[in-house]
Amino acid sequence: MAELIPSSALESHVGILGKTGSGKSNAAKTLAERLMSAGARVCMIDPTGTWWGIRLSADGKRRSGFEPVIFGGERADVQIMPEHGAAIGEAIATSSGSAIIDLRSMGSGGKAKFFIGFAEKLMATNQGPLHLILDEAHIFAPKGKVSTPQAGEMLARTNDLVSLGRGLGLRIIMITQRPAKLHNDSLSQIETMIAMRLIAPHDRRAIEDWIKETADLEKGKQITASLSSLPVGDAWVWAPELDILERIHFPLASTYDSGSLKAGAAPALTAIDTAAIAARLEQIRADVFANDPAKLKAKIAELQRELASKSTAKIIAAPTADIEAAEKRGYLRGHDDGFKAGRLLGYSQASRTQLLRIAEGLRGAAMLTQAADAFEVAAETIKAIQIEEEPASAAIVAMRPLSEEAKEALRDRSRALAVNPIPEKPVSGQAGYDFSRSEMKVLRAIAMWRSLGHDTPTKIMVAGAAGYSAGSGNFANLLSKLKTAGAIEYPSPGAVRLLADIIPMSFDEARDSMLSLMNAPQRKLFDALVPGELSKVELAARTDYSAGSGNFANLLSKLRSLQIVDYPQRGQVVLQPWVHQIL
Predict the structure, then answer these.
(1) Are 133 and 171 in contact (CB under 8 A)?
(2) HSE of 284 in the Cβ direction (CA atoms, 13 Å)?
(3) Helix or strand or coil: residue 470?
(4) What SS3 class is residue 209?
(5) Phi, psi angles (nearest 5°) of residue 280
(6) DSSP label at 532?
(7) What's the whole-number mean pLDDT along residues 284-297?
(8) Is the CB of residue 54 less than 8 Å from the CB of residue 32?
(9) Taking the alpha carbons of 447, 449, 455, 459 in that order, is the dihedral positive or negative?
(10) Separation CA 333–CA 345 (nearest Å)
(11) Residue 63 half-sphere exposure, CB side, CA atoms within 13 Å?
């Protein structure tokens, strides 16, 4: 092979393109054998479970001398799960040997999950040249509309490997029987093309597109004209930058053809000692089990059955006097805690209502001074009460709903809020203040948050309520126009304040508007959280989602961007305190 394909061509990204039965798998195997014989590191991503034969001689009876570790599949040295992608990626990136990663037993979602973690870790930790063979590459870099968010992320990771990996030591060999299904961003990065027999017109057109982008169109006509009639094993090898254009015939690989029907007769391979990495993968497996609702339910049921079978122990009743004494202590403690919490809640809500009615309804410097005095008195009163309280009591009060009086104060505030009017004269260079429909959507979103007590919502909160992406140029332009018009200001980085009373909105209207921001799946999660804090696993189980699914994560991410939910600690979800107050 050395005289037909120079080593320099294998130091770039290679594409082996040919229909089923054209000999592309054999061609890829000969390249892998050549690279491993030269001491290169090779990692084969095998979604079809046919690469294990490279460890055996051509007749399948002896060792071939090539000893890549096999992860996954029926002949695995170490079994793997979709959650093991990052661990395997780091092992490959930082080890000197070669490996086969057999993904045949994983479904499409499992393949995507594994490959996302694998590719990300490989990019982050790879050390030195590594030849990555991506069999059935169109699975990992599909062209056209992707079916799931995970598939879209897998596509992005694959394109990153191909477009950015060269500088990190990665040399990628993509193999596909469907060039038309391989994403353009990956196909266009091929520097050495090995084109074998192709019959479908759209697959031949994919070759033509590559030629138009990277090679000589006139020379390409000879190739495309012959693709449908190439014999098995024949291929055009074209590396335009190396001035290589040859028609060659690949000899049979020197190792066992485990992709043919006769492969079933091959002996099982003995395991390589991989104790260290196996222990690490077992820990990941245990973590996955601990967060799987179905497995947890099964374990609970098992423990309940075990408990029922051992329920022969005698129950010794406590003396009646001890029970009555314990009840009395509990009653007194509860009464005391309830009195303190109620006292704090009453004072804080009454003071808050008073401040809202005085401070925000007053006009003029003198009256604002009165409001400041009232605020100071109320703050000292609340502070004095809080000194008597345990931290836990204050936390409980913060999560209590507002009284009807406090809600009415917010309604008064939304009706009588003092705002700066729009200037009578337009800003220099502006024809007037006829706000567009898009600008009004943004203003209405800010007005909604203001009526709910958020005078300075974040740009993310405003964008979410108005139906925009906070990072989009369109949203940034709308904010800029509104600021120029004097309708809003930026009181702090990332926050927005409404200056013009353009859209009066009552408290009830704002609450209804906030609730309407959520679609049915998001509202399902919201309703499940109303009673109190839940773990992500519990929330997923109550709403019929998988805690590890991309859909569930996206729903939570949207609710968090709107400041509706928060993560008080790892793995926990809770509604924000202000949400409880308006319900």
Answers:
(1) no
(2) 16
(3) coil
(4) helix
(5) -65, -40
(6) S
(7) 71
(8) yes
(9) negative
(10) 18
(11) 6
Burial 90-105 (b: 16+ CB within 10 A, else e): bbbbeeeebbbbbbee
Residue 317 DSSP code:
P
520-529 and 550-561 helices cross at what angle (nearest 10)?
70
518-527 LR contacts (CB < 8 Å, sep 24+): 518/559, 518/564, 521/551, 521/555, 522/555, 522/558, 522/559, 525/555, 525/556, 525/559, 525/565, 526/559, 526/564, 526/565, 526/575
The per-residue pLDDT for range 386-415, each reduced to its tens digit, is 433 333 333 333 334 455 665 565 555 545
Tell the residue number behind the tokens 């126009």, with chain if given: 481
Pairwise CA distance, residues 206 & 179, whole Å: 6
- Binning pLDDT at 50, 70 and 90, where does residue 335 land? low
**Separation between Cα atoms, residue 313 and residue 359, nearest integer Å:** 66
Positive or negative: CA dihedral 200, 206, 207, 209: positive
Helix (H, G, I), strand (E, B) or coil at 574: strand
Total residue count of the chain as it appears in this document: 583
- C-alpha angle with apex 282: 281 to 284, nearest 5 degrees? 65
Cα–Cα distances in Å, from 345 out to 341, 356, 403, 489? 6, 16, 10, 34
Prediction pTM value = 0.49
> Using CB atoms within 10 A of its CB, is residue 224 exposed (0-12), middle (13-18) or buried (19+)?
middle
Tens digits of per-residue pLDDT, 427-463? 333 444 578 888 888 888 888 888 888 888 888 888 8
Q: How many CB atoms lie within 10 A of CB 414?
A: 21
Transcribe 67-107 into DSSP letters: -PEEESSTT-SB---GGGHHHHHHHHHH-SS-EEEE-TTS-
Closest CA to 415 of 358, 350, 360: 360
pLDDT tens-digit map of 529-568: 988 889 998 899 899 888 888 888 888 888 887 778 888 8
pLDDT score for 411: 54
Distance CA 353, CA 346 (A): 11
The pLDDT value given to residue 113: 94
User: How distant, in Å, are the alpha carbons of 484, 496, 558, 564 from that of 579?
Assistant: 32, 20, 15, 7
Write the DSSP string, 385-443.
HHHHS-HHHHHHHHTSPPPHHHHHHHHHHHHH---PPPPSSPPTT-------HHHHHHH
Coil, helix or strand at residue 461: helix
| Secondary structure (3-state) at 566 | strand
CA distances from 17 to 210, 229, 504, 515, 562 (A): 12, 14, 63, 52, 47
